[in-house]
Amino acid sequence: MKQFKYIKRFKELGIKDVPLVGGKNASLGEMYRELSAEGVKVPNGFATTAQAYRYYLEYNGLRDKIAKALAELDVRDVEALAHTGAMIRGWIIDGKMPEDLAQEIADAYHELAEEYGPNPDVAVRSSATAEDLPDASFAGQQETYLNVRGVDNLLRTCKRVMASLFTDRAISYRVDKGFDHMSVALSIGVQKMVRSDKGASGVMFTIDTETGFKDTVFITAAYGLGETVVQGAVNPDEFYVFKPTLEQGYRPIIRRHLGEKAIKMVYGKDPVTGNPTHIVHVRPQDRHRFCISDDDVLQLAKYGIIIERHYSKKAGRYMPMDIEWAKDGISGELFIVQARPETVHSVRNAAIQEIYTL
Questions:
Q1: DSSP single-letter state for residue 141
Q2: In 3D, which of 124, 132, 233, 242 has the Cα closest to residue 187?
Q3: Superfamily assignment of 7-192 in CATH?
Q4: pLDDT tens-digit profile of 79-113?
Q5: pTM above 0.85, yes or no
Q6: Are 221 and 290 in contact (CB under 8 A)?
Q7: Fold for domain 196-341?
């Protein structure tokens, strides 16, 4: 197996690698490596390292240039923030990809092609990391690009992902938190897509997000690619599964709620030159039925329990999880495409009681 300097395959990554590839990519590697044997399906991929990002900036003479521009910026001046952010993003996007880094990205992409077929469709996501602040959360601040195909397109997209470290929101967040802009780096995750554009996708929490009740898995589901659910652009179906009796072999879906599911994100016609995805309306007859089966719901809940148990064991304490999943509409398979500790609801005082009759 070829040794890379700036890239780590998912099978080479674990949760300990947050400083190297950020929380998102470290978690994908952890699940791919540790949970595949337990039946949890995670699409394969690779990540560029924090070192690769720093190398790109140095190679293009951008590090000091960016630091100077940000040192002179007052983030409370909205116009100045927008101007400076756009300027820095332009510098990064217009930079030249070092040949050795470009070759490694191409080689890693070709490895995915050997596994999945020529020109595989990949999701390209950012995962920010601060080496001295491994626990800092940068969730939702950078960009995601879906249905990216071909080496040239991938390399262009990688530059756009690096530039997303300097969105107006990301810049002001770091200032607000007192983080040094130049101590934060960006890892790029490249993962084989799941054809959920022809199926469904959503988010699952291994805790009741309303009450903090630990014995349920809460699952949301909608047609198409998962970005619409993650961004709150669609009203999804909702399911609650009771953990204790699921593990005893029962089928305890204790609540179902039919969502409107008015729109879905699907693949565009020309992912290389045109828009790789677009939004379409869901047919009325599809809106009025659940987008996944009870078997799917129960299988997802089982995945959720396995993932929660694994991360809790690693952390040495109870660790409820926030998990993104996708159902391939061609094969019917269910995949996990992201998992992170659920931090908002699990710290609440679970003082609300809700009684379910099984």
A1: S
A2: 124
A3: ATP-grasp fold, A domain (3.30.1490.20)
A4: 999 999 999 999 999 999 999 999 999 999 999 99
A5: yes
A6: yes
A7: D-amino Acid Aminotransferase; Chain A, domain 1 (3.30.470)
